[in-house]
Amino acid sequence: MTPGTVAIVGLDCVFPGAPDADAYWDLLTRGADATGELPEQRRAGHGFDESVHGGFIEDIATFDNDFFAISPREAAAMDPQQRLLLQCAWRALENSGRSPSALAGSDTGVFVGVMGTEWAQLHMSDYARVTPQLGAGSSSGMTANRISYHLDLKGPSLAVDTACSSSLVAVHLAVNSLLSGECSTAVAGGVNLVLTPALGLVYARMGLAAPDGRCKPFSADADGIGRSDGVGAVVLRRLADARADGQRIYAVIRGTAVNQDGRSNGVTAPNRWSQREVVAAACRRAAITASQVRFVEAHGTGTALGDIIECAALGELHAVQREEPCGIGSVKGNLGHTEGAAGIAGLIKVALALHHRIVPASRFATRENPQLRLAERGLRLLKAPVRLPAEEVFAGVSSFGMGGTNAHAVLATAPREPRTPAPRTGAGPAVGVFTVSANTPEALRRNLAVQADAVARRPRGDAATVCWNSNLVKTGLPYRAAFTARDTAELATALRAAADDERLRAGIADRAVHPPTIGFLFSGQGIQEPGMTSGLYRDCASYRHHLDTADEALAPHLDGSVRDLILDEDPAVHRTGWAQPALFAVGYALFRTLGDLGVEPDAVLGHSVGEFAAAVAAGALGLEDAARLVARRAALMERLPDGGGMLAVRARPDDLVELLADEPRVAVGAVNGPADTVLSGETDGLDRIAAQLHERGIRTRRVRVSHAFHSPLMAPALDRFAEEAAGIAATAPRIPMASTRYGHMLGDRPLDAGYWKEQAARPVLFAEALDDLMAETMPACLVEIGPGPQLVQLAERAGLPSGVRLLLPVPGREATARDFAETVATLYRAGVEPRWQALYEPARRTTECLAPYAFSTEHTFWQTAPRRTDRTPEPAGPQPTADSTGPTAADTAADTAGTPAEETDPVLDAVIEAIVEVGEYPPERVGRQTRLYADLGFDSVMIMQLKDRIEHRLPQTEGVTVQQLLPALRSVGSLADFLSDWTSAGART
Q1: H/E element holding 738?
Q2: Is the separation of the CB atoms in 737 and 614 below 8 Å?
Q3: What is the DSSP letter of 974?
Q4: CA–CA distance, 957 with 950 (Å, rounded to integer)
Q5: How far is Cα 436 from Cα 602, in angstroms, rounded to an integer?
Q6: Could you tell me the end-to-end alpha-carbon distance of the chain, in angstroms, rounded to an integer?
Q7: Ordered alpha helix ranges (H), 906-955
Q8: Residue 966 DSSP SS3
Q9: Residue 705: is it exposed, middle or buried by C-beta count within 10 angstroms (0-12/13-18/19+)?
Q10: What pTM was computed for the model?
Q11: Residue 10, SS3?
């Protein structure tokens, strides 16, 4: 491959008879005719007669404006070419194996070929009806800018009009932008819609129009051009970048060229020599000779002169010694001439042919035009499909503009990747998390159903690879669902059930407005089990790595391996000398595994020995220091005399004061909640207290520990432990850490030797520490980092605020990677954007194509062009055809604001009415909580229009400036509150 090679990594298209790329390929391989009568919708008021025939997309009025946060008023004013391109670009980016949302803010460029502005011809000539929305909606330059704006792409964004070569010139510019480093990803495409008969009349009067509306390229029956609709887009990346990111590559672009006829025999006449030179230049840039090109997707419009000149130009290069003639064909025989989209139609055809390694036959090739002299020119018309060999194959695409701007691209088959899959570890199918996201609850249901059908059509097999691709592509939108699965049949069933059952869907779907605040709770002693997390160790490479790392850090300070002790299910794990290091190792490995997945804590809390792993997570201790401290602490405590224990009591500490006064060798060891107290001390004393509490009907439970931790019985070990801790490099935590020693946030105090000595001696103030953590950081998710449920149960009884999620990655001894994945799925639904690759082994991270996003078909927007005699002023822009009947804004304002009708706010009512008028929204869609930018797609033009309409309804607001309004535009309610305060202040003065 040459250094200047660019990969086609994604594509999408809509052509007559082909609503997507799969249908397009099917149409091509069948040699189908996609031409037909003009759809009825376009006839009214546009000047077409009854005989119009060509290639037409049946429905160009349907558009999911809500998905792109475009108001109904603006959507109705937009050229349908802009609307089709927006959805096409989104699907093409998905097809490239990336979520379009993930590219927001990137240097991605957008290059669009578009020929003419027929929408503007229809709607901008009646000046009384012109609006700002119609002005932007009719601009051909906005076709590219819309994509960049709505997808927040910051690279070059431009529309190109070189007539029929526009979209291939756009690809040429995109390739050069990539190779110059101007952008790292490019969307290149073209669009064409037949909205007026004007250009068809031009063709007819030039003698170029086919009477039957069909192009017959290179045929003896060729008699002119038939016009056609079309939209297509490809996603391009530098080949090295695409391969590094593991993207599927349909084909590669080895070289492109663009030139001009100059002063030839007429500004609209084709020039043989210029066409020859542009093909030769593209071959030079591709570092190949024309003899290496196996087939060419020709311009091939089916005009007698045009076909002869093009074949003569190709013959100048291909009439050389070669094994077989160069094949030629043209997709215009199937579709008609898609004009501004002709180049992209040909490019996508060639990319698919190279990808599938079969070249479709060219329609109308059976009656070859003998005047073309193809054989003597080293050419052959493709009359039957041609299967391509396994080696590298080169192909060309030509597109020539009516004004003399010519473009050619040389493509090649994608480089073969080495087939050396990494060995898979673990037993049985790997677990994955399948993600789906959408912009509304209904859109989520719709896309769940689409994905369910698509997954069900796959052969039954492991689901992990499909899940991995969903993580790359189907994320980033606010309404989210996620499912764990091991095989595709199980996954399809889960998707279908969620799509069909609203209550089930409510349980697995959430709206993620922003990433949640996350608190990690590190378990303390007593929850350890022989074999804990061994299933996760078997299934999860990341966890294996981090447990091994912790084991290595602990090994110099122990008489064996903590890892081996756990995996061997050794009951010695209950001995203090092993229990504490084992819990530390598990806690460390779990939080680091979550970190690999992009799940980082915003605050941490550790219960007793759990504070050591919490301190490492907070950056207050290094792994080596923490491992040494834990091991020494455990060894010193293990050497203490037997005879101590701990007793969990369902009572408050105050209720136990009298009992403790009679037992000086027993003390409060932990306060875990309002009625969750743990006593610690001599076993005999605990037994006497337990008996008395039993008589009072108070529940108690012996804690499975070997010693009386956090009691005076620890004193003999503390001084020695303080000496061991004296040399540690202790710092203040880098993230908020709640101290169970103090019962509140630690702040910037270091975890020095004195802290750890007191921490071992004093009670564990878990309840107070948790309360302070909740008050200070307000986490939406609390994740227990330990081998089983301990702290989440305590937190559940602590009376947490509603909506706080309690998550348990390892729910018990038998926990596996699936349990861990369930936590990741829940965090994703809550708004976390995981680094999914850590969940899958490299062998599972291969590219597979998923069903594209299913846009809503609920809204249609079509505006019949005004007649020339019509001069009635129209206050608003073009009206959507979507049903807009229903209650008025004033009728629904009280309901949407959440207040009874008799308590309606007149300012709020006026604001809602003004917003509804500006955007022509359904009144029921606008309420107090509605966000003007995120939900309604407001922009600067709409803000100015809104200001005018508010002043009309509320004259007392006339003095408000735009600068004063801007901070209040967070939501409808915030705007109404600001205006209420303004008018109240004015009334007081």
Answers
A1: strand 737-739
A2: yes
A3: H
A4: 8
A5: 26
A6: 76
A7: 906-919, 940-953
A8: helix
A9: buried
A10: 0.89
A11: strand
Which pair of tokens denotes residue 824?
A: 């990741």
Give the DSSP H or E segment for 158: strand 157-160
C-alpha–C-alpha distance, residues 740 and 745, integer Å: 9
Question: Could you identify the residue written with the tokens 């993620």?
Answer: 512
The dihedrals phi and psi of 24, each to the nearest 5 degrees, come to -65, -45
| Distance of alpha carbon 684 from alpha carbon 686, whole angstroms | 5
CA distance 81 to 161: 14
Which residue, 253, 228, 219, 251, is CA-closest to 329? 219
Picking from 821, 93, 845, 778, the residue whose alpha carbon sits closest to that of residue 476 is: 93
pLDDT digits (tens, 9 = 90+) for 506-550: 766 778 778 999 999 999 998 999 999 999 999 999 999 999 999
Whose structure tokens read 């691209």? 409
* DSSP class of 871: -
C-alpha–C-alpha distance, residues 769 and 767, integer Å: 5
- How many angstroms separate the CA atoms of 784 and 793, rounded? 10
Beta carbons within 10 angstroms of residue 402's beta carbon: 21
Alpha-carbon span 893 to 913, nearest angstrom? 8
User: What is the C-alpha to C-alpha distance for residues 813 and 836, in angstroms, rounded to an integer?
Assistant: 25
Give which of 441, 543, 510, 593 is closest to 828, Cα–Cα: 510
Q: Which of 558, 621, 632 is nearest to 591 (CA)?
A: 621
Residues 6 or more apart whose CB falls under 8 angstroms from that of 856 comprise 64, 66, 67, 442, 443, 446
Evaluate the CA torsion angle 879, 881, 882, 884 in order and state its sign.
positive
φ/ψ of 939, rounded to 5, equals -135, -175
Sign of the dihedral through C-alpha 911, 912, 917, 921: positive
Percent of the chain with pLDDT over 90: 80
Q: Which two tokens stand for residue 169?
A: 């010139």
Residue numbers in the chain where pLDDT is lower than 70: 1-2, 45, 50, 419-428, 507-508, 865-903, 986-989
Full 3-state SS string of 61-129: CECCCCCCCCCHHHHHHCCHHHHHHHHHHHHHHHHCCCCHHHHCCCCCEEEEEECCCHHHHHHCCCHHH
CA dihedral (56, 62, 66, 68) in degrees, to 10, reads 0
E strands in 285-404 = 293-297, 326-329, 358-359, 379-381, 386-387, 394-400
Q: What is the predicted pLDDT for the residue at 883?
A: 40
What's residue 895's pLDDT?
A: 40
What pLDDT digit, counting tens, does each position of 30-76 carry? Answer: 999 999 999 888 877 677 876 789 999 999 999 999 999 999 999 99
* Residue 805 to residue 796: CA distance in whole angstroms: 10
Angle in degrees, 0-180, between the axes of helices 441-456 and 488-500, rounded to the nearest 10: 150
Q: CA 301 to CA 224: how far, in whole Å?
A: 7
Q: What is the pLDDT of residue 643?
A: 83
Q: CB-side exposure of 278: number of CA atoms within 13 Å?
A: 32
How high is the pLDDT of residue 117? 84
Q: Is 706 helix (H, G, I), strand (E, B) or coil?
A: coil
User: Which element (helix H / strand E) includes 904?
Assistant: none
The strand pair at 230-238 and 186-192 is best described as antiparallel
The Cα angle at residue 826 between residues 87 and 838, in degrees rounded to 5: 80
Tell me what pLDDT residue 866 has. 62
How far, rounded to the nearest angstrom, does the alpha carbon of residue 956 sit from its chain's CA centroid? Answer: 45
Q: How far apart are CA 612 and CA 614, in angstroms?
A: 5
With the C-alpha atoms ordered 128, 132, 138, 139, is the resulting torsion angle positive or negative? Answer: positive
User: What is the three-state SS of 233-292?
Assistant: EEEEEEHHHHHHCCCCCCEEEEEEEEEECCCCCCCCCCCHHHHHHHHHHHHHHHCCCHHH
